[in-house]
Design brief:
There is one protein chain. The chain is an alpha+beta fold. It has 17 helices and 21 strands. A hairpin with a 4-residue loop joins strand 7 and strand 8. Strands 1, 2, 3, 4, 5, 6, 7, 8 and 9 form a nine-stranded antiparallel sheet that branches. Strands 11-10-14-13-12 form a five-stranded antiparallel sheet. The chain has a five-stranded mixed sheet with strand order 16-18-19-21-20. Helices cover 52% and strands 16% of the residues.
């Protein structure tokens, strides 16, 4: 009876819970769809208005460029703008009001011609006409010309064009890069990522539209949209218990409950969280929370077409997804499933409570019957159970009863017999299992030994690779010096000595007359003097080249010793003149530098001897100089420059910088160039910089790289601990 009531109560509770839960889930989906639709349309309005602005500005600028000016361009240009001593061209300050008219900045070094002046004036007129009208929608309006000039209307920063640095170069910023033909082949309006502007101290996003004529990029029209109010609304105007996220398709996070507009100074990418330490991204919380963000991103990215609300079952959440047209940002509302299940659970608890009270009444009624008819007979079963638990399987029960208790007694007796048999089988199985564990342990020990041997061979292979690379660098110089010595030996004028000897032998009967009166004889002695001097010079040069070969060969041995020591304790540091070590590295590469026609510039600060590992430091410098000379292959021979600097960097550091004006390094490559096996040269091996970086760490320092981008050269800096040799003593 009690069981039947309990089943009915449980089923009623379950059905009530499922019905209410299903109703709540449907209502939650409708609310989420309505919320995400309304907020997406409201927040994207400013972006669509900005794109409309761009179309109007582009049309006006095209019309202005196509119309013949009504007055002399040069005269009007000189009336509005002035060339300043710092090399820039700016508005005339005495009558310029940046709150009412556009500011103009032509950076230092830009050559003004008639066409550029005409385009600057056209852009000035368009910004002056539309900038104040659009200021109610966007914070500023500006036009950037590919040559560098910037025309901007920014009332909140009225002196921006007058106070900017002379070399301010606007084409380097993202708002211009998104309009370049290589980045925007469709030549359409494009949006940057959200960022924190250091000048206005505001979070914003930029929209840019390129203007081309006859396949020539003439200008880029841009406006900045402030994001602070939108981000504040996104975080405050949420559904109860939910929160909002905004991120780009590439994972760049724009809005998060723990992010402020000021945090847009950094790069918060959902996909990069696993690579960054937690102290750099405190807003992301624990590893579980980081994984939660990645799961949300993947769910949004892979959502079914046309679906605006999906479930995230592993985190028990609903995701409502929309998109801001224009920058195409993903707007996501995270709605916990507990907000749906909680009302259903509360209703189910009420049903369960009423059913439990009914069940309790039934149980009280049954208690008396059970005590009299069942409890006492079961005591005998309790004693039998205790005996079986203690290992005594010989139990006595009344199996003659024909009711349920009699059936239970017979079943208990049968169970005791089976347990006794299985106890014996289990003992035998345990003995067999111990043998198998012992055999498996021996197998694992053998596998561990094989893994240790494999790791040792891999380490030996890496050391051998590093030795071959560094020895190869020095052998190139050895081969070059040997070839130069061979060429110098071949060019020695030894055959002239034989000719002079034959001439003297022919006239040995009267050498005095021959040497003083004969036309050929009078040139013999001066010729012998010059020949002797040439032979002495050739000998000295050959000896110098052979000395280089000897020094390079000695360095090969040092390199091998350095690499051998990677597996042993480090060398004892010795006092080293770093300037001399730099000169040795340049001498080792001198033949290659000369062959590549590289001009070397030295800027070496005099320093006392510094305790360090001489040969490891020299190995790093030789590698850096060698890489620099190959980086200069794409530069005209008369412009190839290699600059080496030695300087103090604070009280406890010294820097050795190797700078070239070669092909430079792309920003995304700067974090990979020190990885093992990574190289940008067709004949490279990808372990020179890797081994050099490891050696720098062993010296207590670091090896870093910097480049402003392709075609702007690169600088590698070796930072070493600095304390003079006498201080170390």
């Amino acid at each position: 009876m009690g069981a039947r009531i309990g089943v009915i109560v449980a089923l009623t509770t379950l059905f009530s819970y499922l019905h209410i839960l299903n109703t709540q889930r449907g209502e939650a989906r409708v609310r989420l769809e309505r919320y995400i639709s309304e907020h997406s349309q409201r927040e994207q309005a400013i972006f669509l208005l900005a794109e409309d602005n761009q179309a109007i500005l582009k049309s006006a600028l095209v019309e202005r460029l196509s119309t013949r000016p009504s007055e002399d361009v040069s005269a009007r240009f000189d009336r509005l703008f002035v060339s300043l001593p710092d090399g820039t061209v700016r508005n005339r300050a005495e009558r310029f009001d940046g709150t009412r008219e556009p500011g103009v900045l032509v950076p230092r070094g830009v050559q003004l011609n008639a066409d550029l002046r005409r385009r600057i004036l056209a852009a000035y007129d368009v910004v002056a006409q539309f900038g104040p009208a659009f200021h109610t929608r966007v914070t500023n309006t500006y036009i950037t010309l590919p040559e560098g000039p910037l025309i901007i209307y920014w009332p909140e920063q009225p002196t921006f064009s007058l106070t900017s640095k002379p070399d301010f170069w606007s084409p380097q910023y993202e708002f211009f890069k998104v309009s370049r033909p290589e980045n925007n082949p469709e030549r359409k309006t494009a949006w940057t990522g959200a960022y924190f502007d250091p000048i206005s101290q505001e979070a914003m996003v930029s929209v840019s539209t390129p203007l081309d004529q006859e396949q020539r990029h003439l200008a880029t029209i841009s406006q900045d949209v402030l994001l602070a109010e939108m981000l504040d609304r996104i975080q405050k105007d949420t559904m109860p218990g939910a929160y909002n996220l905004v991120f780009r398709d590439d994972g760049l996070l724009i809005a998060h409950p723990k992010l402020t507009p000021n945090d847009l100074k950094g790069d918060h990418n959902i996909l990069d969280l696993a690579k960054r330490p937690e102290e750099e991204t405190p807003w992301a919380g624990s590893e579980k929370q980081r994984a939660h963000l990645r799961d949300i991103f993947e769910q949004v990215k892979n959502r079914p077409p046309g679906e605006s609300v999906v479930e995230l079952p592993e985190h028990k959440e609903f995701l409502a997804m929309g998109q801001f047209r224009g920058p195409n940002w993903n707007f996501v509302t995270i709605f916990p499933e507990r907000l749906v299940t909680k009302p259903a659970a509360q209703a189910a608890r009420y049903v369960l409570l009423l059913g439990s009270l009914s069940l309790l009444l039934e149980l009280v009624m049954m208690h008396w019957v059970l005590k009299q008819q069942i409890a006492l007979p079961l005591q005998s079963f309790t004693h039998a159970t205790d005996r079986v638990a203690s290992g005594d399987f010989n139990v006595e029960l009344d199996t003659t009863r024909q009711d349920e208790l009699g059936q239970l007694a017979r079943a208990f007796r049968l169970m005791a017999d089976k347990v006794q048999r299985r106890e014996e089988e289990l003992r035998q199985t345990n003995e067999s299992l111990e043998q198998r564990v012992e055999e498996r342990t021996r197998e694992l020990r053998d596998i561990h030994h094989q893994l240790v041997q494999t790791a040792r061979r891999a380490g030996m292979a890496e050391i051998a690779t590093n030795v071959l690379h560094n020895v190869g660098n020095v052998l190139t110089s050895v081969y070059t010096s040997a070839q130069l010595a061979k060429e110098r030996m071949g060019d020695m004028r030894l055959d002239h000595v034989g000719r002079v000897a034959s001439l003297l032998q022919e006239n040995q009967g009267d050498l005095t007359t021959f040497l003083t009166q004969d036309e050929r004889g009078r040139h013999v002695l001066p010729f012998l003097g010059k020949l002797g001097q040439n032979l002495v010079d050739d000998r000295e040069e050959i000896v110098s080249l052979l000395d280089d070969v000897g020094r390079y060969t000695e360095h090969i041995g040092d390199i091998v010793k350095v690499q051998q020591n990677f597996a042993r304790t480090p060398r004892v540091h010795e006092p080293v003149q770093l300037a001399e070590l730099v000169e040795d590295a340049l001498r080792i590469n001198s033949a290659g530098l000369a062959r590549h026609q590289v001009t070397v510039e030295r800027n070496l600060e005099p320093l006392p001897p510094v305790p360090t590992d001489k040969h490891k430091t020299l190995m790093i410098l030789v590698n850096l100089v060698s890489n620099a000379q190959y980086a200069l292959d794409g530069v005209a021979p008369d412009k190839r420059r290699l600059t080496v600097r030695l300087k103090r960097a604070g009280a406890d550091r010294v820097h050795i910088e190797v700078h070239d004006n070669g092909k430079g390094i792309e920003p995304e490559m700067l974090t990979r160039i020190f990885q093992y096996g990574f190289t940008t040269r067709e004949d490279g091996h990808g372990f020179g910089l890797h081994s050099s970086a490891l050696a720098a760490q062993e010296l207590g320092g670091a090896l870093t790289a910097h480049s402003d981008g392709p075609g702007r050269g690169a600088t590698f800096t070796l930072a070493l601990p600095y304390f003079a040799a006498q201080e170390a003593a």
